[in-house]
Amino acid sequence: MTRTLFLLAGLCLALVAGCATQPSAVTPNTPAHLTLADETLTLDIVIERPGAYVIETQSDLDTVCRLLDASGEQLASDDDSGANYNCLMFAALEPGHYSAQVWGYDSDTDRGPVTLRVFEPRTPDLTLDTPTSVDLMDTQTRFFRLHVDTAGHYQVSTRGELDTFCYLYDAEGGWIAYNDDIGEDLNCTVAANLAPGDYLARVSAFDPGRSRVIFEPQQAEQRSIRVGRTMPLHFPLPFGLVDLTVDIWEDGEHRFYTSGSTDTVCEVYSEDGERLAENDDDFDLNCGMTLDLEAGRYRFRIWSYEGATGQFSAHVREVQ
Questions:
Q1: CB burial string 148-169: b at 16+ within 10 A, e below
Q2: 177 lies in the same domain as 229
Q3: Do 279 and 211 fall into the same domain?
Q4: Residue 195: pLDDT above 50?
Q5: Are 71 and 138 in a shared domain?
Q6: Which domain does 53 fall in, by range?
Q7: What gap in Å lies between CA 171 and CA 168, rounded to an integer?
Q8: pTM, two decimal places
Q9: Would you put residue 45 in left (φ > 0), alpha (ψ -120 to 50) or beta?
Q10: Which uninterrupted H or E stretch holds 197?
Q11: Which of 46, 78, 153, 201 gives 20 to 30 Å between its CA and that of 276?
């Protein structure tokens, strides 16, 4: 009997999952230490104050995670957004009960100790047109808060020798844009049309090191186009932006659109800067809008969707 008990104890210790009781909950700002085996682990989370939270694992394993609300509806899921193939989710949460599920990408090999963390990240301000050095030595993810006073096109990018990837979120943690390697030397660049307000940027790297992060307006190529004419254009670099001025001489319907194989998004503004319309993918990958306009000067802005490059043409036609 004694020999049998010792054998069972030895078998228990040999198993990757162990016989120790797994935590059933994780508290914000208090890491939970888990052991992954071939099953999905589910931990309860109680959020007491609203905010944008990070849910991530730290381990030498390739992990996958999922966030569920109290009814079991999935709010977020991730694989490999964290450091070293760990999962990392970012979500705006209201007070209440949630659950995090964690498992190994390969149930046969991704077994062993894992630390699960839930926390509100520090979000220092990223000032417009001011490069900010970021140290990614101790952790390979940093969050920044952005403030936009004037509506327009903005981009967040990195400079340096690190292989980085960037995310852009709204103030509630909602995803806006993501990019990896579209900048120079494996740097990332995300760009979006932003209304006045607060936003969050996240910068991560595949390896520890130091980089610079810059938040800046997108530079637009200034041109003019006449009604009834076709203007050939080209986005030689990712996240191109063209700002065309057009004079409408008679009241009536006018169509603004692009043609070609480049994925474009377009907007029409009044002369005083009011956005009148926006469109993406009216026909194939091209944008297009028909507006009933009074005579006057307008701006036709065209930008590349998610860093698309290539040739295309812009058109402004009077609708007969």
A1: beeebbbbbbbbbebbbbbbbb
A2: no
A3: no
A4: yes
A5: no
A6: 21-119
A7: 10
A8: 0.66
A9: beta
A10: strand 197-205
A11: 201
